[in-house]
C-alpha cells in the first residue's frame, strides 16, 4: 500500500479550471438555447473573476512566505500561477472563438445585431452623442503622467478606457459607468432588425470630447482584478462582525491580481500601464475589446422568442405541503422533504410565516449564511418579533462577498429585539438549519428544518438543493445542542445521530469509510456513493484510495474541483467519478454507505473539504423516514445514470461526456428528476 505522501493528489486551483471548462462546454453546446449559451459565457466570466480575486490572490500571498518555509511545505506558488495563466489563456481563446464565431452569427440569424463603434451610421452616432449627455455626470476622465506623479487607482473589476496620446508623456483614464447605467443599449429601428450597442462604444465615441487638447492614438478597454480576501486578525476580543464591516474597503483597495487589457494595445502602452500600476508581467492578461462578460446575464432579448431560452417549468406541487393549512400537524405525523429548484422555496417561507404567527410557537432559532435582500424570510422573522416570539439569529459575518448585507440585516434584527450572534474567530457557520419550539399539551415540542442550501429564494431557483422538515425527537434534540454551541452555552454538542463539524464529522466519515474497507476484506457488502460540490481533504482522499484498493466500489458525483484522481491502477481503479453541469447548479450533498446491507444515508451542508470538516459549523443529518430515504437514493441514482450532461472525471481531465450507447435511453438527470418528482407528488 502506498504511503500517504506517495498518493497522487491534484492541485485544487488547477483542477478548478477544469470545472470552469465544463461551464464553457455548455456555452459551446448547440443543443443549449442561444440565450442560455450567452449566460454560460457570463457564468464562466464571473467564475474566473472570483477565481483571480480569491484563489490567485492567495497564491500570491504565499510568495511572501519565507523561501525556506515554502520549500519545507512544498509550496510552489510561482509555478502554480504560471500553469494557471497558461490554461486560462487557452480557455479565453476558446471563449473568444465561441463568442465571435458561434454566438454572434446565431444572434444575427435571429435579427439581433451588436453594433460596434466603427460601424455606427449617422443616426447611431447622433444617438450616442445624445445618450452620452445623459450619462456624462457618471464619467470621470483623468490625465495621468506616464512616469509618476499622480496616483493611478483602478477600482476592482471596474471597466476603464486607457486613452493613449501621441505624446507618450501622458495618457488618459476614463471609467465606463456600468454600475450606474445599463451595459447594453438598444438603438431605435424602423426595421425588424434589432441593433444593440455596448455602453462602452457609446462612451468611446465621445472620448475625444473629454481630452479636447490631446491627439489620441488609441483607446483600449482595461479591467483590474484585486485581492478579495479580508485579511483580518482573529483576536478573541472585539466583535468580529464590526472588524469585518470596517475592513470591507479592502475589497476595493486589495492587491492587484490580474490586469485584463485589449490585446490590440501596443506593447509600449502596455508597459506604461504596467509600470504605473506596479504590476509584474505575469499579472498582464491580454483579452478582447470588451471585458466583464458577466454583464451578459442582462443581455436584452427584443424578440421575446421563447425558443432562445430554456423551456419554463412550473414548480412541482408537494403532495402534502401544498394543501397543508398547518405545517406543524403534518410534520408531526411524518417527515417531509423538499427539493429545489424543482419545488418552490415558498414551502420554507410558509413554514417560517406560520411559526411567526402561530400563538403556540414560543421561540425560533435560525442559522443564516447568505441573507437575501428584503425577502419573505426576513419579513417573517421580523413579524415573529412583533408577535412576541423569542428569536435567535446566527449570522455568518464572513460569507464571502455578502458580509456587508449580512451584517446590515443583523443590525436590523437586533434593533427589533432579536438575539443576533455573529461569527466566531477562525470558524464559519455554514449549516442551513432552523429550529422552532412550539408549546403543545403543556410541553415544548421542537420542529426542525435541515437543508443543503441557503435561506434565499433567489438562489433556490438556480441551485439544486435538498431539505427535510422533521419533528423526529432524536434529531431535534441534537440540533438544539448545535444552537446552544452557537449561543455559547455548550462547548461540545453531544450527538449520536447528527454529524456536526468541527466536532464529529471527520471522525464519523472516517469510521464509516474504514468500516467499508473492513467489510470488503471480510467479503461482506461494501460500497460508497457520494455527491458533493468539491473533494479536497487529504485524509478523506487517502481513505478513499485505501477503500478502492480493498475492493470497495466507490461512485462519486463531484460538481466542482477534486484533488482525488480516479481510475489509477493500484490506487483508485474502483473509483468512478462524474460531474454534471446543466441548466441548474448542482449544490446538494448526499452520502451513502453500504454497511453490509444496512445502508447509512446522510445529507447536509458539508463537502469533503478540510474547511467543511475542521473549520466550519456544519450539520450532516441521517434520514430516518424510509420514503424520504428512498427518494434521496432515487434522485442520486438518476444522476449517476446521466448520459447527456455528465462528464467523466479521470486522470486525463478531458471532461469527456459520458454519452449514451447505441440504443440506450438518453438520461438528462435534471430533467428526469423533475419528471420523477412530478410523478411522485401527482394528485
TrEMBL record:
Residues 425-459 form the PLD phosphodiesterase domain. The keyword Acetylation does not apply. It comes from Salinimicrobium tongyeongense. An intermediate of this reaction is the autophosphorylated ppk in which a phosphate is covalently linked to a histidine residue through a N-P bond. NCBIfam families: poly_P_kin, PRK05443.1-1. This is Polyphosphate kinase. Its EC number is 2.7.4.1. HAMAP family: Polyphosphate_kinase (MF_00347). PROSITE patterns: PLD. Coiled coil: none annotated.
